[in-house]
Amino acid sequence: MSEQVLTFDKAVKEHFSMLELYTDAIKIAHGDSHPEAIDVRKLFEQMKEKVEKEGTENLNLTDEFEQLREVTNHYSIPKGVCVTFARTYDMLSKVDKAYHS
Prior knowledge:
Elements: H1 8-30, H2 36-54, H3 62-71, H4 83-99
Helix pairs in contact: 1-2, 1-4, 2-3
């Protein structure tokens, strides 16, 4: 059997509610030692606002994903962070991959 491809619409439905919580949590918990967490939160908020306003079809999030990959070093999990931080980067990576599929 082939692995089912995660569409962007499905990725939004599966991950955005948790990303709403997690991006805020890592910003609060790790923002001082990992300022990129603050950028991740801002970029996620921009993406969420666009999705809510425009829907998921024909949506242009190219700049946001490029910036996310840059600030997260392609979703590389820093040493010494909590599980929530790691899960946030994992979810963002999955959403990014789904967007570009």
